[in-house]
Amino acid sequence: MPDNLKSNHRMPNQQPQSAHHDMTQDHAACASFAPRVLAWFAEHGRHDLPWQQHHKQSPDPYPVWLSEVMLQQTQVATVKPYFARFMASFATVQALAAADWADVAAHWAGLGYYARARNLHKGAQQLAAIIAETGDFPQTVDEWQQIAGVGQSTAGAVVAMGVRGYGVICDGNVKRVLTRWAGIDGDITKSATNRILWQLAERLTPSTDSGLYAQAMMDLGATLCTKAKPACLLCPVNADCVARAEGNPTAYPVKAKAAARPRQLSLALLLTDANGRVLWLTRPDSGIWGGLVCLPLLFYQKLFNQKPLEQTPAATPNTTQSAQSWQDNSLFAHQYNAAEQIIVDVLAHMGKPLADIMTASQIADLTEQIKAPQGSVSHGLTHMEWWFKPYQIMLDDDQVNALNHALGGQGVTFGWHTLAEAQTLALPKAMHKVLAQMPTDGGN
Length: 444
What we know:
This protein is α+β, with helices and mostly antiparallel strands. 47% of the residues lie in helices and 9% in strands. It is elongated and about 80 Å long. Its cofactor is [4Fe-4S] cluster.
């Protein structure tokens, strides 16, 4: 073990110290790092991923960029079928740029993190304009970082693998490898630690074959140096890995414990006409799931943080007053989109106010689910955990016509679709979960 590692050595299973290490590896270890990783990749790496360019004589940046956007916080196995669909429908960046957003959204639906799809579409339009003007894709990391949704690591990956220029990557997989190998135990969410990691990544990246090296590092992190069960015995850099020497590689990377995500509970309204068709809304371009198709959603306010049960009068069977108190006490949040507010208003005007539709027992059931939302659909988002309770309301022709008139008059994009038809729409994954819980009764 190099001398500069011995002073930082800790007993096995001991957590890293709070002060992060800078460059714990010596020059020889750093100089041999890339050759070892590249030799391992040549024999054991993945060489059949559909977006890879290293086996082609002339690389194409488009599939590299497309895959890098899709792979952000998403695993390869999940991305593969989406990538194939995109390439089949949008074989060139110009085809993607010219596509309608609704078509792009339909192809992306279910992959999550939908801002990526928006940026992808905008980025394709930017790239198509650049190619029309210059005759080629951007050639440098700085130029790629001007494209919507492309950060430093994505830009480095595209330049290294798609342009075959010099590019450095430092994504989640790479950070895990580097923190373990070099014993960097600062919080990776902090800018100071991130700066150290980028400096090390730049130092280790070879001036030639940076594309092969980028792919090799991605593979190393994804297949051997995994989050929970690293295969240290098979790792090409295990001889001088600090985390392995300490006997606790899973202690790296160090990341401050995230605060618990707030939970929200919503009614997912199944407004159903006489033919069994359900109302679906296209969500506004801005905000969550922009441009995708959803059921009308009625939110509750911060249920799991504000203890609304202690604030809400007990429901008395068959009394409109108690139901109205339930609504007035902010169990329904005022977070509707305009379309949801129109629906609430029209239903009330047509003699179907939600407070009257729901029985006291249904209200009690929902308020109990604030504590333990059994029977509801859970969907995790970056900023919250979202629970959906499907609730069906049967509508007559007059009520359907009133909704059509009100929604259409406000420019809301909507449609009435059967369950089978809805499966083909650009739905977020959460709505597919709700469809699986479609009630067979319970509507009024």
